[in-house]
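stage 2 :: seqdesign
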């Protein structure tokens, strides 16, 4: 396992993720950020709690939150910033990936110059 900052998680995002961990009784878990195939643009982001680190994971600790990214996904999301924005219509996570050359209006689907994925029909 290697320590490396692949993505940046803002303090606001880490606060809300830590709250979700507590609410879902996932204290002690890690935040795993993944890239999945599919979505309107071909690839989609995923985040979930994971209790296990894998040997080839990149690991980073930001704002008390341990973040895991697989070696396979790291080049696709290197430099990505995850933030939490609050507005009058509510709040939610935003993902800004400098490697994305196209993205969908949903904000979770994208493609890069080196990896397009397999687009799916949007609902």
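stage 2 :: out
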């Amino acid at each position: 396992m290697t320590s490396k900052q692949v993505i940046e998680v803002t303090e606001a995002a880490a606060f809300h993720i830590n709250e979700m961990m507590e609410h879902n009784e996932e204290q002690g878990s890690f935040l795993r950020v993944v890239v999945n195939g599919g979505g309107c643009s071909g690839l989609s982001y995923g985040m979930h709690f994971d209790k296990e680190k894998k040997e080839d994971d990149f690991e980073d600790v930001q704002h008390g939150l341990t973040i895991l990214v697989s070696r396979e996904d790291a080049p696709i999301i290197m430099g990505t910033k995850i933030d939490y924005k609050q507005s009058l219509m509510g709040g939610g996570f935003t993902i800004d990936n400098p490697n994305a050359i196209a993205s969908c209006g949903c904000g979770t689907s994208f493609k890069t110059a080196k990896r397009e994925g397999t687009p799916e029909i949007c609902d």
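stage 3 :: structure notes
- The two ends are 38 Å apart (CA to CA).
- The mean pLDDT is 85.
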